[in-house]
């Protein structure tokens, strides 16, 4: 089957700098980083975190279009962050450590500090990972010393690679006695921020599971500490209710719009839909970015989280194809989403399989550029496709997961996103969600902004008169001083137009003056409405419609191939876009075509 679509564009604008947004004006571009959760779950160690720093700074792999010795860090992936798993806490009851069966997932045999009961935080209250300090006044988070024996030293090692280090607080505790921590925000956030600064962290993800759910307090205390940190609001508080430019995002730099992502195409596409309202309302912009969760690119198996207790990462699981992962990356890029990797860089086979995706400088360039709005859907198929459940249910988890995770994902069988780019260009990504191949033709001339240029000077056909003192009719010179017959006709002649008639319109207070030509409908002065060929306010006869303009042409670059297509184009066609595959291009107006 085939279908036809078109591409939209708006005129580029510069990136604004706003102290009203993102807590401290950081994150002018979508942040690019690595964080542990999607691949490792809570099975993190100092070694696994440092291996990510090595992966981001490794220069042994070639990057297309870049000089030898270029790393992912050089492309913009500038931070390594840990997620859940650093905290000491009492385990869940049962025969297996922290609720996992090592015979199903060997990582569950990792050694953790033996905590037998919740910690005291004073006042006959307890918490999962906070405890009252020896001064009987302050409260601090408890780091598991068997897993992270020296957190400050770990952060220093990350900094030594030239990367920033990210922490995770207001934890979800999927490996502990309870999910979340009851320590009140006003009692525990100050101690958390103190630990954050003492360890030397640069970035912070604040989750939504525990009771430290005051993202404004987080931002205020971190800023007062003198640390300029990028903050991720992971369902910790409300998302922006008004545009970023109007101060709609004062406390954080990126925020989740979706539930947790899972390692499957249905989850990725479902999460991507949640960005749309924010993208079209100015609520995702420099210093504050809408975010449908971390990337699953290169992640092997399913994340071992609280939804999958008792089953391993490969139970009833099929690894997404490289083509599906490429589409996942492309959608995140065109959405202007933060790009947060999570793969295990020690797995050379996994890294090799997706290296061309995560190091694609053309795709990253689309993500990092800004011309007034993030990407959004502009066209979609009239038919829908059922992609299956949002969470790929597996083994014993089939009867244990929440009902929301069992909802099936229904989306248009194809969708097309566009994102304006600086210089009047645009990026376009088309994703085929269906099971069959589709024929794709993008007609550039069908879309506002990429259609024919406005009428030329001799085709001016305004619905209302033009005031010669105030403006110009697409280049008609202004008449300075009094509007006289000579001045008006001189202006028309200078524009290459014949001055056919000059008449006065009688008014009760005297005369109003203007001129009319055979090509330009009407001109007037500032004291009158219509000035026409006859007395009275009668518009001149309509001009004949202008001849159709030829379609504009553009230079096209194939993002996935990182290669310019030969020639100039007014449309582009892919004869067969495969299931879950995507077409990704950028369009640049040719130099001889003006941008209006």
Task: Write a short abstract of this structure.
With 596 residues, the chain is α/β, with parallel strands linked by helices. It contains 14 helices and 29 strands. The model is unreliable at 1-19, 395-402, 454-483, 500-540 and 592-596 (pLDDT under 50).
Walk me through this protein's architecture.
- The chain is an alpha/beta fold.
- It is 20% helix and 21% strand.
- The chain has 14 helices and 29 strands.
- α10 (322-334) runs parallel beside α12 (361-368).
- The longest helix is centred in the first third of the chain and has 15 residues, at 185-199.
- The protein is globular, with a radius of gyration of 30 Å.
- The protein starts with a strand and ends in a 7-residue tail after the last strand.
Features:
disordered C terminus, 14 helices, alpha/beta, 596 residues, 8-stranded parallel β-sheet, single chain, 6-stranded antiparallel β-sheet, globular
């Amino acid at each position: 089957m085939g279908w036809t679509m078109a591409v939209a564009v708006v005129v580029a604008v510069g990136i604004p700098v706003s102290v009203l947004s993102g807590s401290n004006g950081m994150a002018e571009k979508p942040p690019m980083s690595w964080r542990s959760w999607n691949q490792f779950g809570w099975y993190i160690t100092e070694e696994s975190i440092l291996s990510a720093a090595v992966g981001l700074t490794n220069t042994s792999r070639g990057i297309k279009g870049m000089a030898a010795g270029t790393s992912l860090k050089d492309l913009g992936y500038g931070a390594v962050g840990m997620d859940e798993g650093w905290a000491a806490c009492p385990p869940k009851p049962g025969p297996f450590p922290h609720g996992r069966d090592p015979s199903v997932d060997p990582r569950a045999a990792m050694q953790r500090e033996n905590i037998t009961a919740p910690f005291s935080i004073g006042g006959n209250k307890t918490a999962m990972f906070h405890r009252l300090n020896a001064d009987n006044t302050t409260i601090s988070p408890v780091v598991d010393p068997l897993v992270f024996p020296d957190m400050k030293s770990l952060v220093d090692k990350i900094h030594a690679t030239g990367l920033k280090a990210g922490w995770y607080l207001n934890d979800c505790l999927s490996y502990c006695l309870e999910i979340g921590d009851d320590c009140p925000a006003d009692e525990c956030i100050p101690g958390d921020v103190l630990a954050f600064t003492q360890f030397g962290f640069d970035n912070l993800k604040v989750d939504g599971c525990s009771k430290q759910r005051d993202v404004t307090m987080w931002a205020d205390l971190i800023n007062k500490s003198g640390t300029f940190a990028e903050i991720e609001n992971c369902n910790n508080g409300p998302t922006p209710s008004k545009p970023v430019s109007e101060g709609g995002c004062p406390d954080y730099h990126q925020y989740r719009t979706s539930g947790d992502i899972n390692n499957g195409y249905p989850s990725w596409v479902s999460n991507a839909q949640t960005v749309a309202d924010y993208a079209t309302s100015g609520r995702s912009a420099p210093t504050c970015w809408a975010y449908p969760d971390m990337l699953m690119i290169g992640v092997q198996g399913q994340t071992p989280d609280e939804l999958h207790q008792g089953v391993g990462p490969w139970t009833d699981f099929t690894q997404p194809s490289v083509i599906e992962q490429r589409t996942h990356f492309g959608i995140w890029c065109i959405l202007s989403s933060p790009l947060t990797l999570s793969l295990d860089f020690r797995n050379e086979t996994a890294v090799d399989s997706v290296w061309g995706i995560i190091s694609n400088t053309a795709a990253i360039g689309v993500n990092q550029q800004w011309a007034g709005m993030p990407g959004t859907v502009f066209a979609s198929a009239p038919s829908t496709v059922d992609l299956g459940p949002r969470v790929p249910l597996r083994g014993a988890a089939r009867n244990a997961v929440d009902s929301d995770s069992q909802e099936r994902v229904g989306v248009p069988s194809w969708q097309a996103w566009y994102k304006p780019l600086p210089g009047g260009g645009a990026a376009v990504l088309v994703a085929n969600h269906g099971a069959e191949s589709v024929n794709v033709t993008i007609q550039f001339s069908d879309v506002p902004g990429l259609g024919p240029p406005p009428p030329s000077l001799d085709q001016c056909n305004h619905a209302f008169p033009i005031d010669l003192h105030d403006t110009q009719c697409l280049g008609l010179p202004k008449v300075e001083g009094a509007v006289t017959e000579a001045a008006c006709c001189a202006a028309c002649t200078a524009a290459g137009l014949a001055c056919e008639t000059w008449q006065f319109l009688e008014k009760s207070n005297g005369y109003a003056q203007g001129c009319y030509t055979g090509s330009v409908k009407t001109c007037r002065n500032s004291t009158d409405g219509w000035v026409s060929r006859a007395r009275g306010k009668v518009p001149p006869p309509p001009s004949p419609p202008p001849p159709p303009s030829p379609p504009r042409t553009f230079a096209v670059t194939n993002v996935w191939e990182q290669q310019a297509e030969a020639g100039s184009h007014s449309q582009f066609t892919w004869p067969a876009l495969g299931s879950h595959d995507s077409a990704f291009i950028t369009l640049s107006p040719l130099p001889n075509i003006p941008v209006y």
